[in-house]
User: Fold these one by one.
Assistant:
Number 1:
Amino acid sequence: MNARQAVVRAKKINRKYLNMRAELWPDVDDEMLWNRKENDGFITIPRAMPYILYIMDTMTVGKPISSVYFSLWCRVYDQSFIIINDTNVMALEAGFATQRGLTAWNSRMKLLVELGFIDAKAGASGNYHYVLLLNPYKVLRKHYDQNKIPKNAYYNALVERVTSIGAEF
């Protein structure tokens, strides 16, 4: 598919979804809907993120890492790089609100580094002041190739989703 065909296809899909939405929810004002092109504070995430997050948590039994990983994605820009100035805020965003929240957050960050989903460098706020998010598709594929992820229904569903959206795995 060339660039022109991609634009035509995107417009057709957009029109289809807008028409369907208007049919199903005729009384909903556009002002009540989130539009990433009109509202500040949007992010871009991999379309297969639900599968990625679930598989990540199966890799760290008893110490789920997905909420920490997702909070990082909610702060990243196109450079795949984050500067964390307040680790307490990051711990809270990831759901670690207790007194030991920062300790739990740090342990999850360490797991994310060990598993290769992120890389981190120390700075003023600690060991995770500078964070680089790596391509989760590539990271999961590497784990799968090393037999660290079983070929089960979730992995197969991830492969199907990645393939259907045309992403590189």
Number 2:
Amino acid sequence: MSNISPEYQEMLDAIKADKEKADSGGSRKYWTPPSDKEGTFPVRFLPPLKKLGEKKFYFDHKNHWIDGQSFECLNQTLVDKDGNLHEAIHCPACAMSKKFYKIADNNKNSDEFKLAGDLSGKQRYIYKVIVRGTDDETTPKFYETGITIFKNLYHILTETDYGIIVDPKNGRDYNIVKVGKGRRTKYDQSLPAANVSPIFTEADQVKDCIGKALKMSYNSLIEFVSSETMEKALRELLDPDADESPVTATTVTNSPAVQETVVASIATPAVEEEPDEVDSELDDILGEFEDM
């Protein structure tokens, strides 16, 4: 369209932003490979940014899944999205998981053992990635995985000849190979690209990417609830008809959740998950990326 007034152009820009949110399924924190597709999805892991005080190219934290909802484990010390330091405290979900393991008495086929595993804290890893093939590759995304991808990356970086794949000049893209769907999804065939390459071959693309990456704080993703809120979620999961009395292993052993084996509905979703010629200007900018 042409001859659009500034006012209407502003409106169209706002509509475009809403369309992008709709395409992504809403305001999601993380990018994920399409849930309904198998295949190979190439990304590029960004290196740690020294200006943000990052020493690793990822951020790790622990969460619990309770009735399909994610809760940060309260037994960890982290700065949250508001800049407040959360000191590790007693975590009701951790305590409940331990109690169910005790009740199960190592009977791995029991409902209690399965529920204990589902309620246990899960280690998660968050990365900043460039998603290849998108309309705007210069906009990094947060990508969260479980231990499968993390262990694969550790193996690649420390035990193979692929080199430092997060290096902005001589690193490699990473091909996420997704096999299966839903809880049966596997990512263990994922591998780095065969050839090394810079993150981008155009200087302005690298500048744009750096500027956006510097605005991405891992802590902005962290939000803690109170112990009371987590206890309420546990109570509603284990016995929806119970009163407001404290949740204990004794009172929930015979709960509908245990007897009907609802653990499948609360399990952690599967997220598990030759160099191009560049000119001297691009080399300098990529060097700036490395020196941050």
